[in-house]
Amino acid sequence: MSPAIRSTALAGFAFCVLMMAVALGLEHIGGLEPCPLCIFQRVAVITTGLVLLIAALHNPHGKVGKGIYGLLGLAAVGTGAFIAGRHVWLQSLPADQVPSCGPGLDYMMDILPMQEVVAMVLSGSGECAEIDFVLLGLSLPAWTLVGFCILVIAPLRILWLAVKR
């Protein structure tokens, strides 16, 4: 058995649940509407959570299985960290360099192919540059980036367990 894989994956999954609970609480209780980049960050958290949950349920014994789950988790966390970093960068731009607001994500998903939607969202828009909430001097995307920096511990530990003897 590999209890270290299961406990690591479950801890990472629990952290994903916590991140989503905070995001949904801020949206539904705090009234903060997520911008397209926020939604993409949520998708990355959910994807990471699913990979870690499957890893915990499967509890792989071999190096290959552990490696696959570690790499998939690392890819999901890395994608989320990239998106959150891009969001923080957009929020740091001077007002005259902020891109203009674009169409809503629902509208783009209805009329554009997914590849163009992703490209448009990652290029950013004015609504993504707005800072609606600050806690201890950090915006929500900055806190999400911190969350991804903590969350990366789980897939890195799974990878480490895959390569150690």
**The CATH C-level class name:** Mainly Alpha
The proportion of residues forming helix, as a percent range, comes to: over 70%
For the record, the CATH architecture stands as: Up-down Bundle
- What are the segments in which pLDDT stays under 50 over at least 5 consecutive residues? none
CATH fold assignment: Bromodomain-like
Under CATH, the homologous superfamily reads DsbB-like
Give the domain tally.
1
Q: What pattern of helices and strands is seen along the backbone?
A: HHHHHHEEHH
**SS class:** mainly alpha
- The residue-averaged pLDDT reads 83
Task: Kindly list the characteristics that best describe this protein.
single chain; two-stranded antiparallel sheet; mainly alpha; Bromodomain-like; 165 residues; 8 helices
Write the layout of secondary structure elements.
Elements: H1 3-28, H2 36-58, H3 63-92, H4 105-111, H5 114-123, H6 126-129, E1 134-135, E2 138-139, H7 140-151, H8 153-163
Antiparallel strand pairs: 1-2
Describe the 3D structure.
With 165 residues, the protein is mostly helical. It has a single domain, classed as DsbB-like (Bromodomain-like), CATH 1.20.1550.10. 75% of the residues lie in helices and 2% in strands. It is built from 8 helices and 2 strands, in the order ααααααββαα. The chain has a two-stranded antiparallel ribbon. Helix 1 packs antiparallel against helix 2 (36-58), helix 2 (36-58) runs antiparallel to helix 3 (63-92) and helix 3 packs antiparallel against helix 7. The longest helix is centred in the middle third of the chain and has 30 residues, at 63-92. The chain starts with a helix and ends with a helix. The model has no long low-confidence stretch (mean pLDDT 83).
